[in-house]
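[INFO] parsing input record for Protein kinase domain-containing protein
[DEBUG] input buffer:
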Amino acid sequence: MGDYEECGEFQAVCINAGDDEGADITFEYNGKRITVSLFASSSCQASGNSQHENYIEDRLIRLLNQAVTADDEDYDELVDEASDVILGLGKILFSQVAPPLPVSILSDQDLHSHLYPKTLNFRLETVDNKAVIFPISPDDTISLPDTAPDPDLETDFQADSIIPQYSSREVIIQRVFASGNNTVSKVQVGSQTMLCKAHRAGLQDPNLKQELVSVQKIREAGINSRAQIRVPSLQGYVRHADSGAIIGLLRDFILSGVYGGTLRDVDVSAVPKEMRRKWANQIRETVDELHEAGVVWGDGKASNVVMDQSDNAWLIDFAGGWSKGWVDEELAGSKEGDKQAVRKISEFLSVA
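[DEBUG] output buffer:
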């Protein structure tokens, strides 16, 4: 979204689409959350043709519907295209309701305020042949208003009673790595610095459930074998401050070494071959230990390996998924896919 850097800080958060009758897009603008609802024009509804695009809202609905089923790269392009149109029409209005905030206000925000900010609702509609954006009430949006995650949701995940639990208001954000409905951040809880992964929908998000199940298995395997598995240790659960539902996890924060934070950040040509071989061996050994514990890494790739200050390699991200170029789609979520990722990482390190 470089075209609009001068009018504010923008980040797409999520879309709701898949229905020709309407869609919406939610984004963060200067620290505030904005949702723009799109309803199909009466002409489009009357024609019954989703390709009828005399009105901007119909074209945007089509773009967002295409994004729902697109791969990651195409998704970003489609959402960016829709966002460019919306920002072009609404940048003055958005800057009025969400002016830039001083850095001091953005720092030391608690996780709850970051993950569940007040949402400003707008609608884009063509009126008298001119596309306009105007505020609407939450009751007039295309999607139902959010409700707090249900603490009694039936799921096969069971929290370990030994592991501490913290309110989302106790978790203070120090640095945000990924934002939106799912957030990854460096946080402080009391005197401890940790990494937090939290999901707005809680355990309704299958990725959170999968990661929690996996990291608990890894923790139990490490305790039973008394061996260190090079995966950051689970240190706590995060619960919704109001409903009490589990919405995230806290784990050890790995301080970066001299070569960089993740393996993807490393200038491989500047690393001695013996060090690269050591990393490849550590990654291979850790994946073998995961498989023995009944855990699949899933999204194995260089950016999901972090390097600590002692130049050791640690594996992160057990929420599932796959990345093109690292694991074949048909092998995603399998031990065979993990082994393929290990081979690709060894090639990346030039030690295959």
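[INFO] The first strand starts at residue 10 and ends at 19.
[INFO] shutting down worker
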